[in-house]
């Protein structure tokens, strides 16, 4: 099943699922992966999964440049985006000038709004979107949400 939020049919594959895995950057240690990695060509646009408010833009060492959107009790997290965080007139933005994107903390987004492009920021071995989800503060496997949505469309 293709992901609706990786634009233009650029979805390639799920490359790492939710749960324990071997370290993605080498070594034999096990680590918990709090999301679903979705491979797509560098620069593919990413769209907001649900309507909501941007509660955080960040660029840390693991997740790289990221956007967190809150939709009711849900948070959806988009990591490894192209661009960087900038403070403009006292407000924090995720800015991707080449992609024509400027996403502000506090901004309300419609479902399907372009919020980033697939990149390789943070801890990554190749271009992909790391998509994480929380419900009421608890991590949720995004694949379970996708399966539930798919089965409800079939019924």
State the helical fraction: under 10%
Number of strands: 15
Series of secondary-structure elements, N-terminal to C-terminal: EEEEEEEEEEEEEEEH
Helix tally equals 1
Q: How does this model look, in words?
A:
- The protein contains 1 helix and 15 strands.
- With 155 residues, it is mainly beta.
- The protein has a single domain (34-154), classed as Glucose Permease (Domain IIA), CATH 2.70.70.
- The strands form 4 sheets. Strands 1, 4, 6, 7, 8, 12, 14 and 15 form an 8-stranded antiparallel sheet that branches. The chain has a 3-stranded antiparallel sheet with strand order 9-10-11, with no helix packed on it.
Features:
single chain, 155 residues, mainly beta, Glucose Permease (Domain IIA), 8-stranded antiparallel β-sheet
Give the topology, please.
Layout (H helix, E strand, L loop, with lengths): L12 E4 L2 E4 L7 E4 L2 E4 L5 E3 L4 E9 L3 E8 L2 E8 L2 E5 L2 E6 L4 E4 L3 E2 L4 E4 L10 E8 L2 E3 L1 H13 L1
Antiparallel strand pairs: 1-4, 2-3, 4-14, 5-13, 6-7, 6-12, 7-8, 8-14, 9-10, 10-11, 14-15
Short description:
This protein has 155 residues and is mainly β. The protein contains one helix and 15 strands, in the order E-E-E-E-E-E-E-E-E-E-E-E-E-E-E-H. The chain has a single domain (34-154), classed as Glucose Permease (Domain IIA) (Distorted Sandwich), CATH 2.70.70.
């Amino acid at each position: 099943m293709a992901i609706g939020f990786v634009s233009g049919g650029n979805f390639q594959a799920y490359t790492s699922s939710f749960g324990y895995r071997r370290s993605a950057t080498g070594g034999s240690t096990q680590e918990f992966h709090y999301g679903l990695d979705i491979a797509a060509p560098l620069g593919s646009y990413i769209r907001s999964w649900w309507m909501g408010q941007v509660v955080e833009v960040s660029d840390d060492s693991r997740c790289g440049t990221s956007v967190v959107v809150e939709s009711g009790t849900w948070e959806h997290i988009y990591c490894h985006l192209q661009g960087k965080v900038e403070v403009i007139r006292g407000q924090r933005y995720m800015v991707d000038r080449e992609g024509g994107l400027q996403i502000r903390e506090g901004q309300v987004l419609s479902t399907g709004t372009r919020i980033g492009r697939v990149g390789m920021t943070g801890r990554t071995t190749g271009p992909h979107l790391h998509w994480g989800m929380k419900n009421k503060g608890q991590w949720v496997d995004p694949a379970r949400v996708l399966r539930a949505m798919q089965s409800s469309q079939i019924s």
